[in-house]
Design goal:
Radius of gyration: 24 Å
Distance between the termini: 36 Å
Largest sheet: 7 strands, mixed, barrel
Number of helices: 23
Shape: globular
Strand content: 15-25%
Oligomer: single chain
C-alpha cells in the first residue's frame, strides 16, 4: 500500500479504497479559523451536545484581526466562550497562523485532521493526513460523525536531487502547480516520495503541502522520517513521532517526477497560481509592494534567509515591504537571531503573527499597483485592490525584489553561501501561553453574542419541480474569492449572512445581489472548476440566501461542490459541455421530476426562453441525496429522517 491508502484504511468507518466511491473516515482532530469557524460553532451549538467528541479540536484567531469596529472583537469573544463551553483549545490572536501553529504544536503522524480552511493539508508535512472542509462538515465531525468524501486517487510525486543556491521549496511548489494546473489535483492526494526528501525539512515540506491546495488536491502527504523526527525533537515533542512510509512495492494511480536540482527561482503571474514561469523570463517588472509571510512561507528559515538578503540594504524608494512571522514562537527566535533588526533597518513594516495581507485584510496596494508576495493565491482582487497585479514568489526572490524595486533574484555567490548556512534551530523553545487548553466544568460559561451574530439561514426542502432564471453566466476557474469576496469589511460581516450576502459576486457584477433578490429563485451558469480556492462555505451560503437553487457548471472544485450540497443547492454538471454556450443571463429554466432525477443521476433542463432542452448530471451518494431533499445539512441534522437520529449520534 502507499502511505495514503494506509492512513485512509486505518480511519475507514465505511466504504472501500476504490477511487471515486464514498468513504467515511474517523477523525481525531479538527481546526477552525475565525473567518470561517463562526458558522461551524453556531451549527455545533444547534446539535445540543455537551462537548466535542474528537480527541482534540482547536479554534484559531488568526484571520479576523483587523478590528475596524465591534464586529471582529465580538466574534472573538463568542469564540472564546465556545471554546470554554465545549472543550476546545483556543489559539489567541497573535499566537500565529493556524496551519503553522497546528503543525508545530498538535500534528501527529498517522492521524487525521479536518479543518475549515483549504490549506489544512499543511499537516501532511509531518505525515498527518489533513483535509479541508466546509464549516458544517467540521461541526458534524466534532459531533462524532465520520468525514464523508469521495475516495481519492493517489498521485506520486517522486523527488530527486536537492535545491540549489538561492532556491526555495516555494520554487519547487510553483513548478508543480504549473505542471498540474489549478484542477490537476482534483480528487487526488499528492504523496511525496524519493531521495529528494532527505534534505527537505518539515517547514520546506509544509510549503509544498500548502500549495497542493492550488491544484485542487484533496490533500498532500509526506512520510514521517528522520527529518520529521528532527522537527518533533526541536519542538520538544519527540514522543509524538513515529515512522511512517509507503510500502516498497506500493502502487500509485499516477507518477510525476521533479528533480529539485533543476529548479530555478519561479514566479506565478497574475491572476492564477498556475501561470508559472522562471523569474528571468517574467521581465523587469516594477513593484509597489512586497509581502513576506503567510502559511506558505513564514517559517523561521524562510524569514531568516529573507533578512540575510536585506541586511545592509534599504528597501527601494516607492516600495512598501511588509513582513508577517508565522507564529509567536518563530517571532521570538527572529528577535534573538537579529532577523527582525535587519528587517526594520531595511525599512520593513513588521505585522502581527497572522494571515493579514494574504487574505486581503489590510496592506492593499495602490490603484493599478503591483504586489510581489510569498503567499499562495493571486486571484484578481484578492489583495484588496481590484485592478492590482499579484505575483507569487519565494522569500528570497521577494527580498531581492524589495531591494531593487523590480522583480529580481539573488545572484551574488557569496550571498548564496550565507543562505546555504541557514537552517532550522535545534530547539524552537518558546511557550504555549497563548494556547488556552480546554477546561473542565465550564458548562455554564456565558457565551457572548454581539449584535452582528445572526442565526444561520436554512433552505426549504427540495421541491420536485423548479422554475428559475439564470442570474449570472460565468467562465472557467471562478474562485470562492470572486463569489464571496474577502477584505476587512466583508469578512467582519460573515457572522451576519443577510448583511454579507449583499457582497456576493460584487467584484464581478455589483448588481448581482439586487438581481437575485428580484428573481426570487435563480440558477448560476459556470464553466470548469467552479468554486476553486478557499474552502469558505459563504460562497454557497450567500447565494443560497439570495435564492440560488442550482449551479450548472462544466465541473466543480471538491470542497465547493460539497458546500453547495450542504446548503441544499443542486450542483449540476453539463452532460455536454457545449450546452453552456446556449445559455444567457435572464434565461428562464425549468427542472421537472427532480426527485426521480436524484435517483437516476441526471435531470432534464428546459430553456423556456429559447425553446431548447438539455441534460445535466448529478453524481451524488444516497447520503447527499438525503441532504438535498432535506434542504441541506443543518436542516437534516435538526430534523433527521426517521431512524437517523441515533446514527447521527444526537
Amino acid at each position: 500500500m502507499n502511505l495514503t491508502e494506509k492512513l485512509l484504511s486505518q480511519h475507514m468507518v465505511f466504504g472501500t479504497l476504490a477511487p471515486g466511491g464514498e468513504i467515511g473516515l474517523r477523525v481525531e482532530q479538527t481546526l477552525t479559523q475565525d473567518a470561517l469557524g463562526m458558522l461551524t460553532y453556531m451549527a455545533f451549538e444547534q446539535m445540543g451536545l455537551p462537548q466535542v467528541r474528537t480527541e482534540l479540536s482547536v479554534s484559531y484567531l488568526d484571520h479576523n484581526m483587523a478590528y475596524l469596529d465591534y464586529r471582529n472583537p465580538d466574534d472573538h469573544a463568542y469564540l472564546r466562550g465556545i471554546a470554554k463551553r465545549y472543550g476546545i483549545y483556543l489559539s489567541e490572536a497573535g499566537n500565529g497562523i493556524c496551519h503553522v501553529v497546528h503543525l508545530s504544536r498538535f500534528a501527529i503522524p498517522g492521524k487525521l485532521v479536518v479543518g475549515t480552511d483549504s490549506h489544512t493539508p499543511c499537516a501532511g508535512a509531518a505525515g498527518m493526513l489533513g483535509i479541508g472542509a466546509g464549516g458544517l462538515e467540521v461541526a458534524a465531525v466534532m459531533a462524532g460523525q465520520p468525514l464523508r468524501l469521495r475516495c481519492p486517487r493517489v498521485i506520486r510525486v517522486e523527488l530527486t536531487g536537492r535545491l540549489g543556491p538561492g532556491v526555495n521549496a516555494k520554487d519547487a511548489a510553483l513548478v508543480l502547480v504549473g505542471q498540474l494546473k489549478v484542477k490537476g489535483g482534483l480528487g487526488a492526494v499528492l504523496e511525496y516520495t524519493g531521495a529528494g526528501l532527505q534534505d527537505l525539512t518539515v517547514p520546506q515540506r509544509m510549503t509544498l503541502a500548502n500549495m497542493g491546495a492550488e491544484v485542487g488536491a484533496t490533500s498532500s502527504l509526506f512520510p514521517s522520517d528522520e527529518q520529521t523526527r528532527t522537527f518533533f525533537r526541536a519542538q520538544g515533542r519527540e514522543e509524538d513521532w513515529l515512522p511512517l512510509s509507503a510500502d516498497a512495492d506500493a502502487r500509485y494511480d499516477e507518477t510525476i517526477f521533479c528533480d529539485l536540482s533543476q529548479i530555478v527561482p519561479m514566479v506565478a503571474l497574475p491572476h492564477q497560481p498556475d501561470r508559472v514561469v522562471p523569474v528571468t523570463q517574467a521581465g523587469s517588472i516594477k513593484v509597489d509592494q512586497v509581502f513576506i509571510g503567510s502559511c506558505t512561507n513564514s517559517s523561521y528559515t524562510d524569514l531568516t534567509r529573507a533578512a540575510a538578503i536585506l541586511k545592509g540594504h534599504t528597501v527601494a524608494e516607492g516600495v512598501s515591504l511588509v513582513v508577517t512571522p508565522g507564529t509567536r514562537q518563530s517571532y521570538a527566535l527572529l528577535l534573538q537571531n537579529g532577523a527582525i533588526e535587519s528587517f526594520v533597518q531595511a525599512g520593513a513594516r513588521i505585522l502581527e503573527c497572522g494571515c493579514g495581507p494574504c487574505v486581503g485584510l489590510g496592506q492593499a496596494v495602490r490603484t493599478g499597483g503591483v504586489s510581489v508576495r510569498t503567499s499562495n493565491r493571486n486571484f484578481k482582487g484578492r489583495c484588496g485592490t481590484e485592478d492590482s497585479s499579484v505575483y507569487l514568489v519565494s522569500p528570497e526572490t521577494a527580498a531581492a525584489t524589495a531591494v531593487l524595486g523590480r522583480l529580481a533574484t539573488v545572484e551574488d555567490p557569496k550571498l548564496h553561501q550565507v543562505l546555504a548556512s541557514i537552517s532550522e534551530p535545534e530547539r524552537y523553545g518558546g511557550d504555549d501561553r497563548m494556547l488556552r487548553p480546554p477546561t473542565a466544568g465550564e458548562e455554564q460559561v456565558e457565551i457572548l453574542r454581539g449584535p452582528n451574530i445572526q442565526p444561520i439561514p436554512m433552505k426549504e426542502p427540495l421541491q420536485d419541480r423548479l422554475e428559475a432564471k439564470v442570474v449570472i453566466r460565468l467562465g472557467d476557474n471562478v474562485s470562492t474569492d470572486e463569489i464571496a469576496p474577502a477584505g476587512a469589511r466583508n469578512v467582519s460581516m460573515r457572522s451576519n449572512i443577510p448583511a454579507v450576502s449583499r457582497s456576493t459576486f460584487s467584484r464581478l457584477d455589483p448588481s448581482f445581489a439586487d438581481r437575485a433578490l428580484q428573481y426570487g429563485q435563480s440558477m448560476i451558469i459556470a464553466g470548469e472548476n467552479y468554486g476553486q480556492g478557499s474552502s469558505r462555505e459563504h460562497a454557497a451560503l450567500m447565494p443560497m440566501f439570495l435564492g440560488v437553487q442550482a449551479v450548472l457548471a462544466k465541473s466543480f472544485a471538491r470542497i465547493h461542490r460539497t458546500n453547495l450540497i450542504n446548503f441544499g443547492i443542486l450542483p449540476l454538471v453539463f452532460q455536454d459541455p457545449a450546452d453552456w454556450k446556449g445559455l444567457e443571463q435572464g434565461d428562464s429554466l425549468e427542472l421537472v421530476d427532480i426527485w426521480k432525477g436524484l435517483d437516476q443521476g441526471r435531470l432534464l433542463v428546459r430553456n423556456q426562453t429559447h425553446g431548447a432542452q438539455f441534460t445535466v448530471e448529478l453524481d451524488i451518494s444516497p447520503y447527499e441525496r438525503e441532504l438535498l431533499l432535506s434542504g441541506g445539512l443543518l436542516r437534516y441534522i435538526k430534523n433527521p429522517p426517521t431512524g437517523k437520529k441515533k446514527e447521527l449520534g444526537l
